[in-house]
Design goal:
single chain, mainly alpha, Serine Threonine Protein Phosphatase 5, Tetratricopeptide repeat, two-stranded antiparallel ribbon, 8% strand, globular, disordered N terminus
């Protein structure tokens, strides 16, 4: 591949509210800065120290400026047709797809983040002398020592940021180009694509080498205003996810147990920090500022208050709403019953994560009872109402006044403790069985899984199965429910090699009828067809990248 200079991003990205000079993730920087400028200007040095945070994917704008859920069997995009989601839904992913260059977490934006990290690492090698030129070490030793601490942390964070961006590229493309130095505009370097395992090994080595140079916890440190930067826990969480993916059937075709053991050990390293715990309330965790204050959050992307998620996903009958990403009955039907099913109300006595995540007919939302029957406020025959009979609830603030410009906070948790426990349960089961407990571990796969289920409800049925294969299915189910709409489902189906089965099934919805007595009844129907091709287990590289590589970049199979 032929790599040329890509400017470091010069946009404002408010992911946090303060820093070494306040606003530590305000990444306004001079893209024309030269090495000489950086070497003599402390403020510019710190600007470049923050720049590699600018490309962090923001899950609320992943696909069609909304959640990625509509690419999977979790949801159907309702109000916009000819969407990027349709490219996934109808097997249209190809090397010229617009989806490759739009939305959060694209090829270019991820390499922008990598270049920003490389740039900072290259030009901050002599940071001690840079700071000494701009700090009076005699009259201001406190400021000088603080700068030294921060530069040490920032350099570690740059390595971890680079590892994270490569993990996002690898899960999309498999093998990619490993670039670890800054390439200037005049450079014309041919770089061969690294294999998937080589990329994984690079990520793991970055985490292992630099995790101890990171702050353990910004919240409890003397620099709590820096909360939002990478920590030891975030670095280990990256490693946990990467090794779980590497151990999965898509990448581990021989089912090498050692890969599962490595994934289990990586998740165990996060657990052993004894720093994170499950939030008391599943539903409330995702609302407003709770995501940032909760001990469940390992790493989150921050934004100022807005109402975009509500505007895009409130029911169309709510003033200002657009229906947006509407959950599928495929997902709803997978929420377990607690106790006896109620024939008159199929949403009653269910896993409470259903009511925390999805607006169902007859439930209260936006200050009214949802009525999707003929003549009801949310009559499904009206234009742009839900095509599945459901609306999104997770992440959204109830009854926000969109007409009057009401806003709420929406922070995207990239890593949270529940995922780590589920990573652990899956890897431990594959390596040691549901109840195996090797030396150095304090939880079995079953115990970790039960912790997640118990937080949802103490009334959920106990998991009593003992076989590895049956327990595997339980873990898959639990990830589907616990991590719904959090940009895990599509990638889980890919890494499990389940996508060709699941994503070729139609998306189901429910039609709603109301009797003369006011009782609702429901009929399941196919709301949309879906097509998934075997080539789509990996993204294609864009045609322009293939051409520019002069034959070095080999397209992924099937494209």
């Amino acid at each position: 591949m032929k790599f040329k200079y890509v400017p470091v991003l010069a946009a404002v990205l408010l992911l946090g509210s303060s820093g070494c000079e306040k606003d530590f993730l305000d990444t306004k920087i001079d893209i024309y800065a030269t090495p000489v400028t950086i070497a003599t200007d402390r403020a510019t040095l710190f600007s470049f120290a923050n720049a590699f945070y600018a490309s962090l994917p923001y899950g609320f704008t992943s696909l069609d400026n909304n959640l990625f859920a509509a690419a999977s069997d979790e949801a159907q995009q309702t109000t916009v047709y000819n969407t990027n989601a349709q490219i996934f839904n109808q097997g249209g992913l190809n090397s010229n797809s617009i989806v490759m260059s739009s939305g959060s977490g694209t090829y270019k934006s991820l390499y922008d983040g990598i270049r920003a990290a490389n740039f900072f690492l290259d030009y901050s090698k002599a940071w001690r002398s840079f700071i000494a030129l701009n700090r009076d070490t005699v009259s201001d030793p406190t400021g000088y020592n603080k700068d030294k601490l921060f530069m040490g942390w920032y350099r570690g964070e740059a390595h971890i940021a680079r590892a994270y961006y490569y993990s996002e590229l690898a899960k999309r493309y498999g093998g990619v180009h490993l670039i670890t130095q800054t390439l200037q505009q005049s450079d014309n370097i041919q770089v061969a694509k690294a294999g998937y395992d080589e990329v994984v090994n690079f990520i793991v080595s970055e985490v292992d080498k630099y995790k101890d140079s990171l702050q353990a916890d910004w919240k409890t440190s003397s620099y709590s205003d820096q909360d939002g930067r990478f920590t030891q826990g975030a670095a280990l969480a990256i490693k946990s996810r990467v090794l779980l993916y590497a151990a999965s059937p898509l990448h581990n075709t021989t089912n090498d147990i050692e890969k599962w053991k490595a994934a289990a050990a990586a998740a165990n390293d996060v657990i052993k920090l004894n720093h994170y715990s499950l939030d008391a309330s599943y539903g409330a965790y995702f609302i407003a500022n709770n995501t940032l204050t909760s001990s469940e959050t390992i790493f989150a992307v921050r934004r100022p208050a807005d109402n975009a998620p509500e505007t895009r996903n409130y029911p169309i009958s709510t003033p200002g709403g657009s229906s947006g990403v509407t959950p599928s009955h495929n997902l709803v039907s997978d929420y377990e019953y607690i106790g006896t099913p109620d024939a008159a109300d199929p949403y009653k006595n269910r896993d409470p994560r259903l009511s925390a995540s999805i607006v169902t007919n007859g439930s209260s939302w936006n200050g009214r009872t949802i009525d999707e029957s003929a003549g009801g406020t949310d009559d499904m025959r009206k234009a742009n109402t839900s095509k599945t009979g459901y609306y999104l609830k997770k992440f959204l603030t109830d009854n926000l006044n969109l007409v009057q410009g009401g806003t709420a906070l929406h922070h995207w948790a990239i890593f949270r403790y529940a995922e780590i426990l589920l990573n652990y349960a899956e890897a431990m089961n594959e390596a040691y069985g549901p109840d195996g407990l090797p030396s150095g571990y304090t939880l079995t796969a079953r115990q970790a899984l039960q912790m997640v289920r118990a937080r949802a409800s103490s009334s959920l049925p106990a998991v009593t199965i003992t076989s590895v294969s049956a327990f595997r299915d339980v873990v898959k189910h639990e990830r589907r429910i616990e991590l719904a709409f959090e940009d895990h489902r599509y990638w889980d189906l890919l890494r499990w090699k389940d996508a060709e089965t699941v994503l070729n099934q139609p998306i189901q919805g429910v039609s709603v009828t109301k009797s003369a007595t006011g009782a609702f009844s429901y009929q399941v129907f196919n709301a949309a067809t879906r097509v998934f091709k075997s080539s789509m287990y990996y993204y294609p590289f864009s045609q322009s990248e293939i051409v520019n590589s002069n034959g070095l970049l080999v397209q992924n199979p099937g494209y």
